[in-house]
Structure formats: C-alpha cells, structure tokens
Amino acid sequence: MVVKNSSSTFRWGAVTVLVLLGLVVATSLPGVVGVTGLRLGVPFAAMGPGPSFDVLGTTEDGQDVVEIDGAPVDQTDGQLRMLTVSVYTDLGLGDAVSMWLRGDRELVPLNSVIPANTSQEDVAEANKQAFINSESSATLAALNFLGIPLETVIAEVMEGAPAEGHFEVDDVITLVDGHPVTVPSNVSEYVASRAAGDEVTFTVRRHSEEVTIPVTLGEKDGKPYVGILMKADPSGDMTVQYRLSDIGGSSAGMMFALGVIDKLDPGDTTKGVNIAGTGTIDPDGTVGPIGGIKHKMTAAEEVGAQLFLAPADNCDEVVTKDPGSMTVAKVSSLQDAVDAIDAYAAGQPVTSCTATDE
Q1: Cα–Cα distance between 189 and 167 in angstroms, integer?
Q2: pLDDT of residue 15
Q3: For the segment 215-238, what is each residue's pLDDT rounded down to a tens digit?
Q4: How confident is the model at residue 7 (pLDDT cuts 50, 70, 90)?
Q5: Which residues are marked as active site?
Q6: pLDDT digits (tens, 9 = 90+) for 252-283
C-alpha cells in the first residue's frame, strides 16, 4: 500500500497491518483554507489502486528485484506482479471531496489506516520488522516448497537491546541453549518460553568460526526479548535478497515466494503468462488474506494481467468486483498458486471465487 500525506509517502502491503518500510517525499495534495487561514482537516483517508512491480524484473537501477546468488537461476518469459494500494492521508475537506468525486478512490476512517497513539518510531520499527518477516516467510515457503535446507541469519541488532555488542549482522545462529536452530521461529519460540532476566546461550557461525554468546534476556511489552531481527536464508553459499526496499509488508509474501520458485525451479513456472496476485505467506506455504483487494484487482487490470491470484479468504470481496478480461484463481496455499498457473497456461479451468464463497 502506498500511503501519501502532505510530506511523506508510506508503502504498505495491507490496510490492517502497520507495515512497510521507508518514507518517500510525495507531492502535497491541495488543501482547503478557511477564512481564518486554517486547513480544514478531515478524519478520513482515501484509497485507490497503487503501482505494481514485477518480482521477476529489475529495479530502476538495474538490479534484480529477487536476486539469487550461489545457485543456477532460470530465465522466464512471464511476469509475477505484486500489487499495492495507494492511501492518501492528511486530507483537507477539499481533498476528501475531490477524491470522492473521482470515483476511483474510496474514503475510509483514518484510524483504519494509521492507528491512534502510534509514534513514528513505533511505525518505523513495525515497518522494518514486518518487511523482514515477509521476506523471511517468502524465502522459507519457497525453499520448503523446493526442498532446499535453511539457516537463520541475523539481519539487524537493535540499538540498546540485550543483543547489542554481542551479535553481528550476518551471524548464523546454529544453537540456542543447545537446541538446533534452522528457522527463526526456533529462536523466537524458545525465547518466548523463558523469562526476562534468564541467561540464554547462543551458538553462532561468524565467518568460518563458531562463537558462543551468553545473553541475559531483557523485557519489552511484558515479554522476554533479545533484540535481534532474523531472516531465513538458504544454507551454504546460496543467498536470496529482495530489492524493493521501499515496498514491503505482508501482502507481497506470496508473490515473492513465487518469484524465488520461478528462479530456482528448472523450467518456466510462469509459462510466459502475465500474472498478478497478492496474499500473505506463512513458512508452511499457507496464503492469507490482505486488505484493499478490489483496488489491487484494478491495478492488475491496468497492467494487462491475464491471471490474478486471490487469497481464498478474500473471495467475499473478489466476487463483488468485475475482473474484466482477467481470470481469477482462488488460492489457499503456494501449491494452489503453482497449480493455478499450470492450469491456466495449459488452457484448463482454474478454481475461482464464486458467490458461494461469500
């Protein structure tokens, strides 16, 4: 989702999740000034179709959106387009009326987009963690789908946290209190089972050396914590990186995972089809619902998508939107998504949302 106000642009992946990354300067919308000279603000935001990005393509500076090193990468003729929703905030009365009159914008309560009593620091931290989680889940889901082993890597050490001064970025966690670690949830679940003040011993691989790190757990929001951001990477020399740093959030997960599969799996997963889609992804490959799907369907139509992959849990909204010339496939898992692409490319029917899904 792209959230715009008079000075900033936030890119978010779902209405209900406070996620995504950076702030990009945006052009201010015209405001309404009353006779007192004060702007007449309204407690609404406007939503509409946002930009889309081909995860099999390149960024503006020529880097692969999904970059894989250390393993053979297949070429593809198709597209896998992740979608966003533009959300405009800091609206004046005139802005809100103008957005409503356009017909392609939807007015929603402001607090449904930006929760009350949320600081910018909280937003930035939530954005960063959510994007890293989305990347990690996409990598986990794709590599699990392909049967490729994984390892847990430190993505960031939080300032002022118990981990500061002990861990380094790119440390690979192999053990926690002697328990084997392969995926980040092995660490987070174990730490959650302990108490603040407990000492936990981590074993990490730093470059080619094994390092033992004792850490006394701190407390945050009433829970024990270490203060590290983790991601799942392929074990060995293969690395997976995502280059859309200004866009993130949980709704890009399924498309990122499909991008990894397409690049690593022999053959052309997309079969030359222009595919758009949206949905969260869990490490086990489960596809979850997102916000703003009708706007994302419009964005997909605008870029000529032939096949639209829709989370099954969003079907109640999907059936209220005319898909135009697109074929809409209902998916509950990564396997469903791959099967839908195969069926469409072969000229076979796909499982779609129906009125009975409402």
Answers
A1: 19
A2: 32
A3: 999 999 899 999 999 988 888 888
A4: very low
A5: 251, 296
A6: 899 999 999 999 998 888 999 999 999 999 98
The alpha carbon torsion through 300, 305, 310, 315 (nearest 10 deg) reads 70
Token pair of 216, please? 């006394």
φ and ψ at residue 319, rounded to 5 degrees: -70, -15
pLDDT tens readout for residues 312-352: 999 999 999 999 999 999 999 999 999 999 999 999 999 99
**Residues 253, 287: Cα–Cα separation, whole Å:** 8
What token pair was written down for 81?
């387009």
Q: Tell me whether strands 223-225 and 228-234 are parallel, antiparallel or unpaired.
A: unpaired
